[in-house]
Amino acid sequence: AIPRMSSLTESAVRFAWSLLNQVIEQHKSENVFLSPASVQVALAMTLAGAKTETEAELSQALHLSQLKSPHSDMGRLISALNSGRQGVKLAVANRLFAERSFAIEGEFSGTLAKSYGAELGSVDFKQQCEAAREAINQWVEQQTSSKIRELLAQGSLDSNTRLVLVNAIYFKGDWKHTFNPESTYDGQFESAPGSQSPVRMMQQTQQFPYAEGRGLRIVQLPFAGGSCSMLIVLPFERHGLSAALQAVGSLEDILALAGSATEQEVDLHLPRFKVETQFSLSDPQYLPAMGVKRLFERGHADLSGISTAENLFVSKVVHKACLEVNEEGAEAAAATAVAIACFSMPMMMPFFVTEPFLVLIKDEATNSVLFAGRINQPKE
């Protein structure tokens, strides 16, 4: 078991915050949803084969540089996440697809197998890269219960591809307190001041953990079994989410605020929504802007821990995630491919989610942020 705030969890929470902010910064008006846990695992797998400055950059960006044994720590986290959850389905899967003619260092494949449970898939990128792409997509589709299809688009691999690291995470949970569909009504959601759109608004009055402070209000919706929960974060000042998040400045503080929640009678109004997003995290505005540069540079990347046969570099990191929230519960999936306080409360707390909000899905046992996003425009 992993202590709730181990140094690994701390680094994961820090990485989650910097990644989420980096992506939100680029997509100010669109929905953003991703799995920081998934991206971190895929990049940590790559880190296992990185050397010299490539390793230092990646380790620092992943906030893993202070850990003595990041891969075995990561392995324990993955097995803790995969250990079965009462009332929810949660699965994390990893795989490495390598060019079959390619000599992989034994130590690297050993670390992947031992810490990440990642099998080595052997494919023919040189002659049949389209078939290889289909095989990888099929594997991701299976691992995410068909939620993530076509992770790698046509033409995204070519005969120079040597290595594709794939990490998939799937989550499905029923609410501990389900919403009565008969209470769902036609509501309005204001994605920007004066810009309204119709939504199907779910409603229930129930005891939920509720917290407020630091300019934020948080309600925590537990899933059945209590092992995971969804946090819905709203600003005090209407349409003040980004300012409030900037003022807080860390995900640790948001999680600590959520941890101080007390059970309140909450009148909750939450839109039904689906979100699906895809990002190429190797593009300059994402990971390279977070300090991961050499990994993507031909001739500068040092991945000699993976193979010394040729000068390897990572050509692409693709991340796709989706979330569906309805009366019964929530379903989320993500895949990442690396080609290579105390105060008195009123009796009833109104909590109307009618403006952009932050959503987090976290695992209570490990305190891992499985998914994170900002919803500007809930659509079904």
From TrEMBL:
Pfam families, per database record: Serpin
Q: SUPFAM superfamilies, from UniProt? A: Serpins (SSF56574)
User: Which InterPro entries does UniProt cross-reference here?
Assistant: Serpin_dom, Serpin_fam, Serpin_sf, Serpin_sf_1, Serpin_sf_2
Q: Which GO terms describe its molecular function?
A: serine-type endopeptidase inhibitor activity
Gene3D superfamilies in alphabetical order: Alpha-1-antitrypsin, domain 1, Antithrombin, subunit I, domain 2, Serpins superfamily
Please state every residue range assigned to the domain named Serpin: 17-378
Q: Name one GO cellular component term.
A: extracellular space
Family in the record: Belongs to the serpin family.
| Name this polypeptide is given | Serpin domain-containing protein
